[in-house]
Design brief:
Strand content: under 5%
Helix content: over 70%
Shape: elongated
Distance between the termini: 58 Å
Structural class: mainly alpha
Length: 86
């Protein structure tokens, strides 16, 4: 694996690990799943395949961020607008 791709993979892993702290099923569950996925793909040598996997990981990061923003929005909406509905 080229050094630049290795750096991208490590950076992706670190970012996903950081985002996994607030995962709904728990940080340990997320960390275990993340590690299994990365270990499953550790023998991939083709740079194009590695780039595809990095893109998939970045998509997962965006989905996690969206999940967290939605959860935060729902909590704020419930907190501030519960008097109006109830």
């Amino acid at each position: 694996m080229a050094n630049s791709l290795r750096g991208e993979v490590l950076n992706l892993y670190k970012n996903l690990l950081y985002l996994g702290r607030d995962y709904p099923k728990g940080a340990d569950y997320f960390k275990r799943r993340l590690k299994n996925v990365f270990l499953k793909n550790k023998d991939v040598k083709d740079p194009e395949k590695i780039k595809e996997l990095i893109e998939r990981g970045e998509f997962v990061m965006k989905e996690l961020e969206a999940l967290y923003f939605l959860r935060k929005y729902r909590a704020m909406k419930q907190r501030y607008y519960s008097d109006i509905n109830g």
